[in-house]
Amino acid sequence: MPTTRRRRSTSIGRWGSNAVGTVALLAGCSTGPRPTLEPVPTVDDPVAGVVVERLDRADAVNFTATYDITPSSATEPTPAIVRQLDGRSRVTIGDVDYLTDGTVAETCRRSTAECVEYVDNARVSDLNVTNRFWSDGFSTRLTVDAARRVGFGEGHTDTIADRSAVCATVPVLGGDKLYCALDEGVLARYVGPDVTVELTSFSNDVDAATLSTEVDPGI
Question: How distant is the alpha carbon of residue 81 from its chain centre?
């Protein structure tokens, strides 16, 4: 892993780190009416609501977690590791690093040490996740799926990565989707037609030094 300062590119405009996870779809298109923001629907399914409530806790938790992310187009998982400490986070998904501290964001390619000073989720779009997959990325997905459900969700508890988790199976057109969240608040499991996300380890211990992209994330 290079130890020299990362090369940065600033040729592309900045986007907020929560834009994909917390804002619903834009209505209209470039040739039609002016786009408008549609609010995220409320959750009226009590089973889904329990998991959403857990995921909404994620930003307040200090933790280190590892995941396997397997899109439906792949046979092998891509490893990911999420670290969060006192409002700062580093999310490493395969070859891509995301570093945020609440005000400043950076995305780096580990293999080339090239960085841009904004969150670039296009770099992991082939995995069907964003850098916020562990929290509001899937909380928003679940909220939308609960609004589109074709029946009430089924809830159960499970043990995932040696931690207690609550789960909701939500029936939607085309099949069921499974969402699980740890009691501590982070995503524990997602199984859907586009991708599978599985928590493989979780700890409330965080090495502050590893929040810098100058340090190898260890995956």
Answer: 11
Domain at 105, CATH number: 2.50.20.10
- Domain assignment present for 2: no
Residue 33 domain-assigned (yes or no) = no
Q: How far apart are CA 81 and CA 119, in angstroms?
A: 17
Domain range for 83 is 44-204
Backbone torsions φ then ψ of 101, nearest 5 degrees: -130, 15
H helical segments located in 73-159? 136-148
Q: Per-residue pLDDT tens for 48-91?
A: 999 999 999 999 999 999 999 999 999 999 999 999 999 999 99
The reported pTM is 0.80
Number of domains in the chain: 1
Q: Which DSSP state fits 37?
A: B
Residue 210 within any structural domain of the chain: no
Q: 70 Cβ partners below 8 Å, 6+ apart? A: 76, 77, 78, 195, 196, 197, 198
